[in-house]
């Protein structure tokens, strides 16, 4: 039996809300509409791929971790399953014609190589 006290009753008053429900067609993928898909492809640096991204089972991080393709940024961080165009910072490879990536929003990395 749960004992009801003024300090224990707060849980019954907790409500959850949201500001926006993301549409089901939101994740950007290889099948997404032009021209944004080309922008994602043309400015991707494969140097982002590492042993941590390999765990996802998806070879490329072009559309984020596990190809989630979310155009999502939080005030405290940018998740790695968001599009790398938003958060990636790389040096590129001019010999291979690979652009360096400059983040629009900083990402706090949890893993270091």
Summarize the structure in words.
This protein is largely without helices or strands and 113 residues long. The chain has helices at 36-42, 51-54, 84-87. The model has no long low-confidence stretch (mean pLDDT 85). It has one domain (28-113). The protein starts with 35 loop residues before the first helix and ends in a 26-residue tail after the last helix. Helix content is 13%, strand content 0%.
What is the secondary structure topology, with strand pairs?
Elements: H1 36-42, H2 51-54, H3 84-87
Sum up the structure in keywords:
0% strand; single chain; 13% helix; 113 residues; 3 helices; little secondary structure
Mean pLDDT: 85
State the end-to-end CA separation. 51 Å
SS-based structural class? little secondary structure
Question: What is the number of independent domains?
Answer: 1
Number-wise, the strands total 0
Largest sheet, in brief, is: none
Order of helices and strands: HHH
In terms of DSSP E residues, the strand content is: under 5%
Low-confidence stretches: none
Rough outline: elongated
Short description:
This protein is 13% helix and 0% strand. The protein has 3 helices and no strands.
């Amino acid at each position: 039996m749960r004992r009801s006290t003024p300090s224990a009753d707060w849980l019954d008053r907790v409500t959850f809300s949201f500001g926006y429900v993301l549409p089901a067609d939101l994740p950007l993928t290889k099948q997404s509409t032009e021209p944004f898909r080309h922008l994602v492809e043309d400015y991707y640096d494969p140097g982002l791929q590492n042993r941590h991204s390999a765990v996802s089972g998806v070879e490329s991080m072009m559309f984020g971790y596990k190809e989630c393709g979310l155009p999502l940024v939080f005030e405290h961080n940018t998740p790695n399953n968001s599009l790398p165009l938003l958060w990636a910072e790389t040096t590129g490879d001019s010999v291979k014609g690979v652009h360096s990536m400059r983040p629009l929003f900083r990402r706090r990395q949890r893993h270091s190589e």
